[in-house]
Structure formats: structure tokens, C-alpha cells
Amino acid sequence: MARLSALRVDADAIEHGEWINPGDEYDGMTLKVRGFTDAYFDSYNQKMRRAAVPFNGDASKIPNATARAIRAECLAKEVFLDVAGLECDDGKPVDAAKYRELMLDPNCGALVIAVQTGASMVGRGLALDIEEAAKN
Q: Nearest-CA neighbor of 87 among 8, 127, 12, 28?
């Protein structure tokens, strides 16, 4: 039987962020992200409503590219906080400002997916324990 304690989340971590390993495919890159906060959903919903105006308010008619751009913008603004372990092809480290900028580039969708994946992990006991990871 499920235990209530296993279903609880850390609301403070969701609001303030945690360092997350979004997956092995990111080769050691870690992200500090918030969870999906009310601010994220409020921003996303407001932008989607605005984008739906030319379609008589029907959000299902918003072109996918527009919806994807809105999602990336809201994740960059409301969820993403910082990045570590990522460098440009020239070896220079990618900082938070550059990562946020790249999230808006349609050619960098994997960076958006990493933030989205990380946000779903925050507050659920899946945060990256930096000290523990360093021991391994």
C-alpha cells in the first residue's frame, strides 16, 4: 500500500530550486531549476491566451512552433536558474545567461527538454546531492 509520506513534495524546493541531473544523455551537465510553480503556469497560460486571440480564443489552433516558443520562454524565465558542466564547442563554459538565450533557439530544443525534465524532478527527493556525487 502507498504511504502518504512517499507522495509528499518539498514545496520550498519547488519554489526556490534544486540542482538536478536531467539524465545520463546530458553527460554530466547539471541544472538548478525550480519545479513547475504557479508563476510558470500563470505566465504560460497568459501567453497562450494572448496567442489564441487571432484564433477566436481557440488555443488548439495555435501553431506548434508558437506554442513551443512560449513554453521555452516561460521555462527560461520562471523555471531555469543555473547550469554547470556544459561548455561550448570552443571549450568555454556556458553560463546561466547563455543557457537561457540558447533555450529560445529552436535548434537547441534538448536544452528546453532538460529544464522541463529537471522541473518534474524538483521536490520529489530526486535532487542531485553534489557531495554524494563527488564521492562516486
A: 28
